[in-house]
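Quarterly update, task 2.4: zinc ion-bound model.
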Amino acid sequence: MSVEVKTMPKMNIKKGDKVTILSGKDRGKSGKVLQVIPSEKKVLVEGINICVKHKKPRGRYPQGGKLNQEVSVFASKAMIICKNCDKPTRIARKELEDGTRVRTCKKCGEQIDV
Ligand SMILES: [Zn+2]
C-alpha cells in the first residue's frame, strides 16, 4: 500500500480566470490569471503588481533599460469574478452526476468552469 502524498495545495484559482485584487497597491483592480504557482500559493495576474525591472544591456535586452513585468501575488489576495453575476465571489465545489468536480459561484450558484 502506498500513501498518496499531496504536496500541492488546492488552488481555487485557475489559469484564465478573471480575478480582482483584495489588498495591496493594486486593490480593486482586476485582470486575467496568466499563471498559477500552486507550490507558492501564488498567481500571476495580467496588469497586476507591475514591477519595473532594470535590465543591463546584454543578452536578450541589447538596449538595456526598464522592463515592466508582472510579479506574482498571493492567491489569497485575489478573488475570482464570477462570469455569470460579474461579482467577486467565493468558490464552492460541486460534483456533477458524471463525477466531474466543478467550481461554482457562492453568490449565484452558477458553474464557473464551463
Ligand atoms: Zn455568480
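Highlight for this quarter: Residues 82, 84-85, 89, 105, 107-108, 110 surround zinc ion (CB under 6 Å).
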